[in-house]
């Protein structure tokens, strides 16, 4: 396995995903991981990530020197290259501005890292690579033992190597797709230089997870809050495969789900797979708590708290439960570790399963803790879950509660459900569903004037939202074909009573968030 030491680059998770895609297990740890922990991790190779700092700032991040004493290959990327150079006796000169962008790199001499990898050949016979470069500080004097393996016009030391010790540094980012041969370069490092095999495959992940879960829980019973979302669905299928009837799921229908969603969850899990699912119909309880509430943050809190209350109630009725399973995935783990160091500003409070009565003394079981979202999906497919379920767009915990703007009432929910269903159904039919990252309808309590037949209509508005994004941190609105939008609008106007007009949201993120509340 590979150890990635994180210096705070926005791309660190991408490095990890690329390494995993090449079939090699890796973990991200903070740059200041101590010598003992590094040794205990026993990496077959180490990658030092980029980072926002300059090697020249007074308190700059330096890895523990043991990184360079373990006898394993090391790859430094961007800041990782600079700190490696500085720590091994080279000289790095500051530059006043940082710059990112496309660059053409000339591959220099021979190296195990880059040999034979190129986008084209120059007239002089040199290999050329299209890369995504970050010019920050510059390595000016090579550390002893290193030679240059790549250069650009502006960065004479775009890549360096010490072949004897198997230390490599790249000033550009192999992990981003703009670097066209990036995946090959990373694979060269982990497979050929570190000697890692392609063992991290969905089949192996499944086998190992099953063994680990069985060893962990033995004959104990496990409780899971099933929401119908991808993560909890995969946990349910995985635990059912591992321990069968020892798993009990509680599915709280909060009345804020999409059309037919509750029945679908029951039919997939209870009927088809034979999972023990307790369905709690709690629409009434949620809606009565939400009565008169219009503030989005307050709505989120009420929905979150009511969920916890009901879940706790159900859970405390079960006997002999020893474990609480959760669908925590690797990005959650990384983010909550990062949030501890740098207090992230709360834009919206997201909620997951909260506290349970302490008297229950439940131990936490998080079988997806090490997996990225795409790996969770592959595992779901491996477990036989339907493609449509595993590749569903994300759906927020508070559900339609934050898609009916303002006060949440039953009629508005019903209108929204129908409109949303039409939009999604047409997206699937047109083959557009998988091309957008998330799509949904929003109910606007604003009234506008319309005309139906000969009659004036004064009724609410439906907004359609569809975005394309890789990480949901930024997004662009999906440029859906006009004919398609036209079709959806006509169907909503014809089939959903009491909607005066349909609008399409063309706001990116930023400035808009993906959800409207
Ligand atoms: P925003 O609206 O913040 O959404 O741009 C980014 C992504 O997060 C989802 N989202 C939530 N997910 N609980 C969740 O589990 C929440 O409270 C919540 N709020 C937003 C949103 O659907 C989008 O995918």
From TrEMBL:
Lineage: superkingdom: Bacteria
Pathways involved: Purine metabolism; GMP biosynthesis; GMP from XMP (L-Gln route): step 1/1
Domain GMPS ATP-PPase: 200-392
Residues forming the catalytic site: 78, 173, 175
Gene Ontology molecular functions: ATP binding; GMP synthase activity
Cellular component aspect of the GO annotation: cytosol
EC number, UniProt record: 6.3.5.2
Entry-linked InterPro entries: Class_I_gatase-like (IPR029062), GATASE (IPR017926), GMP_synth_C (IPR001674), GMP_synth_GATase (IPR004739), GMP_synthase (IPR022955), GMPS_ATP_PPase_dom (IPR025777), NAD/GMP_synthase (IPR022310), Rossmann-like_a/b/a_fold (IPR014729)
Pfam families (alphabetical): GATase, GMP_synt_C, NAD_synthase
Function: Catalyzes the synthesis of GMP from XMP.
Protein name according to UniProt: GMP synthase [glutamine-hydrolyzing]
Species per Swiss-Prot/TrEMBL record: Thermochromatium tepidum ATCC 43061
């Amino acid at each position: 396995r590979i150890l990635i030491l994180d210096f705070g680059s926005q791309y660190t998770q991408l490095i990890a995903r690329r390494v995993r895609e090449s079939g090699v297990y890796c973990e991200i740890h903070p740059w200041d991981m101590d010598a003992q922990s590094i040794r205990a991790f026993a990496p077959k190779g180490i990658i030092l990530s980029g980072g926002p700092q300059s090697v020249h700032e007074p308190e700059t991040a330096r890895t523990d020197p043991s990184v360079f004493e373990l006898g394993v290959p090391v790859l430094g990327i961007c800041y990782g290259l600079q700190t490696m150079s500085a720590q091994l006796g080279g000289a790095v000169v500051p530059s006043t501005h940082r710059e990112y962008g496309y660059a053409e790199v000339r591959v220099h001499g021979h190296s195990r890292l880059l040999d034979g990898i190129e986008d084209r050949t120059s007239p002089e016979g040199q290999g050329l690579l299209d890369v995504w470069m970050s010019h920050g500080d510059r390595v000016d004097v090579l550390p002893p033992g290193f030679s240059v393996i790549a250069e650009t016009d502006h960065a004479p030391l775009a890549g360096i190597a010490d072949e004897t010790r198997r230390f490599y540094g790249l000033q550009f980012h192999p992990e981003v797709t703009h670097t066209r041969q990036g995946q090959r370069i990373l694979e060269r490092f982990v497979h050929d230089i570190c000697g890692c095999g392609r063992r991290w495959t969905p089949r192996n992940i499944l086998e190992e997870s099953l063994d680990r879960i069985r060893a962990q829980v033995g004959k104990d019973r496990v409780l899971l809050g099933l929401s119908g979302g991808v993560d909890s669905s995969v946990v349910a299928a995985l635990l059912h495969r591992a321990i069968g009837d020892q798993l009990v799921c509680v599915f709280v229908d909060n009345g804020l789900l999409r059309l037919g969603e509750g029945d679908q969850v029951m039919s997939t899990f209870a009927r088809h797979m034979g999972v023990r699912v307790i369905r709690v119909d709690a629409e009434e309880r949620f809606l009565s708590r939400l009565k008169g509430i219009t503030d989005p943050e307050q709505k989120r809190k009420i929905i979150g708290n009511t969920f916890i209350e009901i879940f706790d109630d159900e859970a405390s009725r079960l006997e002999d439960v020893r474990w609480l399973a959760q669908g925590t995935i690797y990005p959650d783990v990384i983010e909550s570790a990062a949030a501890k160091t740098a207090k992230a500003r709360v834009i919206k409070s997201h909620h997951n399963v909260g506290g349970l009565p302490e008297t229950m003394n439940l131990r936490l079981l998080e079988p997806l803790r090490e997996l990225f979202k795409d790996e969770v999906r592959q595992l779901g497919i491996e477990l036989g879950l339907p493609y449509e379920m595993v590749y569903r767009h994300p759906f927020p915990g508070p559900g339609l509660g934050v898609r009916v703007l303002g006060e949440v009432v039953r009629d508005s929910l019903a209108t929204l459900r129908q409109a949303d269903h039409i939009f999604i159904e047409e997206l699937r039919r047109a083959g557009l569903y998988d091309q957008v990252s998330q799509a949904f309808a929003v109910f606007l309590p604003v009234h506008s004037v319309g005309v139906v037949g000969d009659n004036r209509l004064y009724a609410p508005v439906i907004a359609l939202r569809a975005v394309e994004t890789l990480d949901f941190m930024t997004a662009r609105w999906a440029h859906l074909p006009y004919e398609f939008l036209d079709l959806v609008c006509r169907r909503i106007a014809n089939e959903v009573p009491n909607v005066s007009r349909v609008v399409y949201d063309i706001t990116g993120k930023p400035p808009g968030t993906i959800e409207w509340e």
